Amino acid sequence: MSKIESINEFVIKFANVNGSGSASANQMFAKGVFRSGIPVSPKNIFPSNIQGLPTWFEVRVSEKGYLGRKDGIDIFVAMNPQSYYQDLQELNSGGYFIYDSSWERKFDREDVNVLGIPLVKLCLEFPNLKQRLLFKNLVYVGALSFMLGIDKEIYIKLIEEQFKGKEKLIAPNIRALEIGFEYAKENLEDACDIRVKKSNKTDGLILTSGNDAAGLGSVYGGATVCAWYPITPSTSMAESFTKYCEDLRIDPETGKNNFAIIQAEDELAAVGMAIGANWNGARAFTATSGPGISLMGEFIGLAYFSEVPLVIFNIQRGGPSTGMPTRTQQSDILACAFASHGDTKHVLLFPSDPKECFDFAVEAFDLADQLQTPVFFMSDLDLGMNDWSTPEFEWDDSRIINRGKVLNYEDLENMDTEYGRYNDVDGDGIPYRTYPGTHPSKGAYFNRGTSHDAFARYTEDGKIHAEVLLRLSKKYQTASKILPGPKFNQDKNTSSMGVIYFGSTDVSMQEALDSMTEEGIAIDAMRIRSFPFNLEVWEFIEDHDLLFIVEQNRDGQMRTLIMAEGGIIPDKLVSILCFDGQPITADFISTKIISHLSGKPEAALIGGTS
User: Fold this and answer.
1) Is 345 in contact with 532 (CB distance < 8 Å)?
2) pLDDT for residue 609
3) Residues 6 or more apart from 294 whose CB is under 8 A from it?
C-alpha cells in the first residue's frame, strides 16, 4: 500500500455532524499547527440548519504559504457515517482515512490507508454521555498530535487558554487529548508518513478571521454605533465589534459605555438607525449580507442623495434569494455599486485578507466622512468567517481621524454668505456639512431625500435637479483619486496578457500565477481594491491585449462593471467564473486560463465547480 509522504504540506479534512461540538476541536487542531510555525488555512463548511446534517472542516497546511483552497484530501478524519462514501472519494491515492472503529466498517478503496481509532470506546471512562460525545473530538486531536509529530504541550496550552475561568473543564479535556495521543502511540506509530515539523514561517503572522479584524478595525476607525440585524455570515462581525467595544470603549472614570449596539427589527430599520446616527455626527455602521442589501435599498438611496456618511459591511454569501447562506460568493458587486433606484453609484472596498479587513474598516469611515456618501465594505463568507494566517495588524498612534468637510461654530460665525449645504465650493463635488446644534442660528438645513438645490431647499426644477446629479457624479471622480489603488504582481508590464481579480481570490491567484510561470506562461496580474476605479486600473487594462477576469459569481459582475465604466470591448475581457459556493482554487484558475490559451475558450467562459 502506497503512502503519501510530506512534511508541512498537506490538506486534512474533518467530517462531522453539525451541532456535535467538533468545530472547536478542529479549530484547535489548526491552531496547534500554526503555533508549530506553519501557516494554515482552515475552512468551516457547515449547513444552514442548527444540527443534524453533515459538516466539514478543511485545513490546508503549507510552509510555502499557499493558503487557497485545494482539491484533493491527504488525510480524512471521518466522524460521520452518513458521509463516509462521499468523504472516501475525495481522498487522494495513498492518503489516510481515519474513522471511529468502535463499529467496524468495510471501505471500497484499496489505494488508501484506512486507520481505525475506537473513539467511542476510548471515551467510556467519562461518566457523562454528553462529555463522551464532546470528548471524542479531542481524542482524535490527540491521536493526530502523535501521528503527525505535533508537540502535545501546544494543545495542552490551547486547552488551558480556551477554558480559562472554567478550570473544572481543563483536566477532563486534557485527559481526552492524552487518551487519543496514547492510543496512537501504542497502535499507529508508523501508520502515517505525513509530518508537521516545527518551523518559523508564522513569525509576524496571526491567525484570525476577516470579521474579527473588521470589528476591531471599526473600533480603531472611530465607530461608536452599530445597528444591525442578524444574518449569516455577517453576524460575527457585529459581535466582534461589540466584544472589542466592551474592552476598549468603556469610560475609565464613570464605567459607562461609550458605544451603542442596537439589534433592529430588520435590515431596513438597522440601516435607517445607522444613517440617523451618522447625520448626528457619530460614526455608525451596519453589517449584513446580500438579502439585507436588497431590503436596505430605499434608505441607501436616501443616504446617497442627502449625502450622509454611512458604512455598510457586506459579507457576501451564495444567492439568489436565500440561496446558500453558509457558502461563499462574490455576487453582490453590481447590487452594491448601483444600490437603490434612480441614478446612484457607490464606493466599494475589496479587502483580500484579515489585515486588509482591519485596514479597510478604518479607512471606510474616513472615506464615508470625506465623501459624505455610503461606503460598502465588500467581504465574503470565506474571508469573513474563516480564520486566515495573516500579517500582524499595525497602528500609527499619530493617525488623525479625517472627518472631511465639517463646519464648526467659528466657521459658521465668521461666514459672510448664506450657508449652502449642497454648495460645491471647491469644485470636487463635495459640499460642506454641519452637525446638528453646531450653531444656534446658522448652518441649519432640512435633510431631505427629495430634489433640492444647493441650499437644501425643495425644488421641482428639473434643471437644478440635473445639476445636483452632475455634481454627485463629480464626487465619484474625486473618490477614484483617494481610494486604495490596485496591487500588481510585478513592477511593470511583462506580458500582453493580464489577469484581474479581487477580494479573497488573492491567495489562490498567487499560487495560480506561480504555477503558470513554472509552465512558461507569462501573465501580468492586478488586484482591484476599490471602486470607482482609479487611473492605474484603466492604464493596466489599456496596456494589455487580452485580460482574464477572475471572480466568484455566475454573471461576471466585475467584468460587466469594467465594461460599463470604461467602454471596454467585450472580446478583450474573458471571464473565469466559479460559483459553486466553495472558495476558488489555484488549479481551477490556471486550468481555465491554459484551456483558453490552447484554443478552448468555452472552458474559461463556463465555470461552476472548482
Assistant:
1) yes
2) 47
3) 335
Say if 145 falls within a structural domain. yes
Among 329, 291, 386, 334, smallest CA distance to 551 is for 329
Classified as helix, coil or strand, 574 is: strand
Residue 548 in contact with residue 576, Cβ under 8 Å?
yes
C-alpha dist (Å) from residue 153 to 8, 30, 142, 158, 449: 19, 15, 11, 9, 61
386 with 474, same domain: the answer is no
Of 170, 201, 232, which residue is a domain's last?
A: 201
Would the pTM of this model clear 0.85, i.e. be above it? Answer: yes
Summarize the confidence of residues 302-330 as an average pLDDT: 96
Beta pairing, strands 487-488 & 524-528: antiparallel
Whether residue 403 is contained in a domain is answered as no
- Pair 580, 610: CB distance under 8 Å: yes
Taking CA 140 as the corner, what is the angle to CA 14 and CA 39, rounded to the nearest 5 degrees? Answer: 60
Task: Dig out the grid coordinates for 376 from the structure.
Answer: 460598502
The reply to whether 441 and 511 lie within a common domain is: no
Beta bridge partners of 347: 375
- What's the average model confidence in pLDDT over 389-415? 96
φ/ψ region of 429 (left if φ > 0, alpha if ψ in -120 to 50, else beta) reads left
Pick left, alpha or beta for residue 556 (phi over 0 → left; psi -120 to 50 → alpha; otherwise beta): left
* Bridge partners of residue 379, in order along the sequence: 315
For residue 204, which phi and psi values (nearest 5 degrees)?
85, 5
Q: Which of 401, 338, 244, 370 has its CA nearest to residue 565?
A: 338
359 CB-near residues (< 8 Å, 6+ apart)? 217, 351, 393
- The per-residue pLDDT of the chain, averaged, comes to 95
Can you give the pLDDT at residue 602? Answer: 56
Question: Between residues 241 and 127, which one has the greater pLDDT?
Answer: 241
The reply to whether 458 and 493 lie within a common domain is no
Instruction: Domain of residue 61: give its range.
Output: 6-201
- 3 state DSSP class of 515: helix
Asked if residue 68 lies in contact with residue 584, where contact means CB atoms within 8 angstroms, the answer is: yes
Inter-CA distances, 452 with 51, 309, 428, 455, 491, Å: 53, 18, 19, 8, 47
Q: Are residues 18 and 166 in the same domain?
A: yes
Gap between the Cα atoms of 92 and 98, Å rounded: 13
The verdict on residue 401 lying in a domain is no
Q: How far, in Å, CA of 343 to CA of 336, rounded?
A: 13
Q: Give the closest residue to 335 by CA, choosing from 352, 317, 308, 353.
A: 317
Query: Pick from 330, 423, 90, 384: which is nearest to 208 by CA?
Result: 384
